[in-house]
Design brief:
The chain is of the alpha+beta class. It contains twelve helices and twelve strands. The mean pLDDT is 89. The chain binds zinc ion.
Amino acid sequence: MGTRFRLFAQSPFVGFGTEPEIVAVSSPPGSVGAGPSDGRMFVIEPVGKKWPYGMNRGPLGTPFVYLPQWRGPRLAPALPDDDGNFDYLEPDMPGFAAAHAFGSARFTLDVWENYLGEEVDWHFRDDFDRLEISILPQWDNARFGYGFLEIGSQFEKDGSVLPFALDFDIIAHEVGHAFIFSILGVPDENAEFPEYGGFHESFSDCVSLIAEMHFPSVIDQVLDETSGNLYLSNRIARFSEFPGNRQIRDANNTRTMDDFVDGYRNEHDLSEPLTGAIFDILADIFQESLVDRGLISREVEQLAEDVEFGGAESAELQHAFDSAYADDSEGFAQALADARDVMGAYLAETLWDLDPDFLDYGDVADVLLAVDERETDGRYGDIIERNFERRGIGVVCAGPRFEPKQQGSLPSQRAVLPRDRFWLPRMSYRERFVLSESINRNV
Ligand SMILES: [Zn+2]
């Protein structure tokens, strides 16, 4: 008994015939109101909002902090039906995007608060009671920040616009950033290593990956595509797919820390070795689970191990998986769900135990190993150690960011706080006037 939404489990932007599926989130019937909205968050579709939240530049170029809440006009909110559900909304109806964004965020909270063991307080609770989820279709990004989750669109060369509000991966990823801010927090000044930023992106990708694996259709599709040989490129490993086989990131990658010893371009690139290691650990735990259940032999597991890091497809291996999967597809689905839950629980514990100061990926490996030791007496210790080592994690660290910020560039967007107003240069009266005109009147 929950509240029903229609969600696209995977990006609707690839392939034809992707249909949203009806999902019940944990909110009791009747508890989600117009917007949608509840006690923790609400969705708006502002009309005439000129800037995304965060740090912006005023009409004369002076930086200013722009934070919720939006007080201007907005599109009509999505309304629940008589039973409190939103699944009557179809993709071509007004309000669908708002309901999809809310349902995706709520679904991700359900999955992860279960692993985290409690309801997570927003890190901005001192200033805002609720998260404002703002849909800003003309903006080419998505961001979670102080009091907001703002969602734009992808603009394609052919002129089409792919709204991120319909992309579960992106919304779940942004909710992942919320967990990090609330539970791990931010490092002290002068205590931030480059890998803190990489961890933010990697963990958030894992939040989306694990959340997505809670749609039964996703588990079935992944297994049907691969017969359980997860190293074949498949849907769950790719984040936010777009037409033409593009995706924002690929968990099934071969990046190692050696690629970053001289430095890194952005934290998304830097996140790839860590995400790759975690994906490989998940795949290895899944294989262990298949062996334990007698669904594949130890020899097949060993063969998978041999072809794993070379990225080569082995026909013999695939054949073994195909026939084993055909014998007991239900057993495979249970094994994959088990591996997902081990990984989700371990990552949640890791988030609680990590310290943001001087955090590097070696710390993530150490904490994950300690979690495994505590939970299962080190049952997956070899798997964890081996996969981190292969990525050079705990061996080498990332160098500094390439192309230091140009003079006058704006500070990190995600971490903008209300108090940042105090160190910014003061705007002239005229600039303030023009700005307030455009924010308040939304011209
Ligand atoms: Zn991110």
